[in-house]
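**Discrete fold encoding**
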Amino acid sequence: MRTRSTTRTPALTEIGFGGAQIGNLSRAVHEDVARGAVDAAWDAGIRYFDTAPHYGLGLSERRLGAALRGRPRADYVLSTKVGRLLVDSPDTAHLQDDDGFAVPAAVRRRWDFSRDGILRSVEESLTRLGLDRIDIAYLHDPDEHWEAASTSGVGALIELRDQGVVSAVGAGMNQAGMLADFVERCDVDVVMVAGRYTLLDDAAAERLLPLAAERGVGVVAAAVYNSGLLSAPRPPADATYDYSTAPAELRERANAIADICERHGVDLPSAAIAHPLRRPEVVSVVVGLRTREQVESTRERYRTRIPASVWAELSAAGLVAA
């Protein structure tokens, strides 16, 4: 699998393993299934793995760390996130998590972008992962916490970068505007933009991608299926977009894109993966993976050659920017 990098970003495989699914996103995943997905990703040549404390209240980090244990540490890149501390919550341990993951609520999330909060978060992630360093640390969803995240948060990550505890720092969000602000105003190396540079949403192209190119900051594109609408050759009637029911007009647009893809012998999900990689600023596409079968289908989609005529026709139809 090919890799990409920038002057500030470590070399990442063009496909990255998104670890939310093995943190029991939406439903429980057996330990063996989760381990099989990571093993299949390794066999497929994927060497970039992304996780976060938020994913399954630490479960994703523990599973990913265990699955990668014994692999040569220099051979893969691992990213995790900061900004949500996990705090013991015995009063809710008998309940299920109420933030999308099928895990017991034995801990709760607490926003904290202070210096001490960031240092504690990284230390606890290292323990769950069983590692002594992190390759990339992202400020996680600081939408309502710009002031703290862009000062004490970034400052603490830079401190850890200077110490060699992390190699690169940045932010990961479901919006492009604030990520562009981080690139413009802060000393970041890489950002992860979820859902905002896809076949259906190119918000990142306005400011984020040009700024990243100018400053040598890598952009990781996540959620390229927009949480489901672009994940099947034909969007089903109950397809989701950004974790909600997809509006009819977006389903129609996805079907129009699929019409053009099919005329050229390719399918919609393969085009969804290929689209962000058309831009050199994008160093990896992270796909959420739950099973060995999902890894294998992702590898085949990645390997699909998308003719230039597909992009030309989509552009001429006003469906995708040139």
Q: What stands out?
A: The chain has a mean pLDDT of 97. The radius of gyration is 19 Å. The domain at 3-224+275-290 is CATH 3.20.20.100 (TIM Barrel). Residues 146-163 form the longest helix (18 residues).
